[in-house]
Design brief:
By secondary structure, the protein is of the alpha+beta class. The chain has helices at residues 23-32, 35-43, 65-72, 77-82, 84-89, 155-176; strands at 4-6, 13-19, 52-56, 93-98, 107-109, 115-122. The protein is elongated.
Length: 177
């Protein structure tokens, strides 16, 4: 398979790979290794559990891979419809690779010859068509009140307290004497 470049700015893209290994071999490998470790070997690049999905298509019995992509990941139905025949023809194991694999920088993948890229699908981008709120209370920090300052102590009050304390001590000393 050719080299696959995933730029750091790529978001919301799912790549679907077919794995050309017998089911029994894949089941044995998954008992010996974690899914991320096996996917890392197949992709020749380290991946985490959040970067991939690796599963047998038999796990999707009754649903199918096209419906899994459109319903589970909200992939555009028209894009999946174009590849529906290829997706329905798959059997065995598949690997879904998410573009978040490139969060730390541009990624260059050199996939194993056991992987076949079936399709690349974009998840929909959220629409940001909300009208900005123009009220004063919607402005940043409009509800924040400044931290109240502690009242400053007066030197006169401190001096007065010292004089009174000295007078009381003098009276007590005079009485005890």
């Amino acid at each position: 398979m050719s080299v696959i470049e995933i730029p750091i700015a790529e978001r919301g893209v799912i790549r679907v790979f077919a794995i050309s290994r017998p089911m029994s071999e894949m089941a044995r490998l998954l008992k010996q290794h974690s899914k991320p470790a096996l996917a890392s070997t197949l992709l020749s690049h380290p991946v985490s559990q959040d970067d991939i999905e690796l599963f047998a298509l038999s796990d999707l019995a009754g649903v199918g891979l096209p419906a899994y992509l459109t319903d589970g990941y909200d992939v555009d139905k028209a894009a999946v419809r174009a590849d529906r025949a290829r997706l329905d023809a798959l059997d065995g194991y598949v690997l879904l690779l998410f573009s978040r694999v490139s969060n730390d920088g541009d990624v260059t993948l050199h996939p194993s010859s056991d992987l076949t890229l079936i399709g690349t699908y974009a998840e929909p981008k959220s629409e940001r068509s909300a009208v900005p709120i123009a009220t004063a209370s919607a402005k940043l920090y409009s509800g924040v009140t400044p931290t109240p300052r502690a009242p400053e102590r007066s030197r006169v009050g401190s001096a007065l307290t010292a004089v009174v304390a000295l007078l009381i001590l003098t009276v007590i000393w005079w009485i005890l004497r």
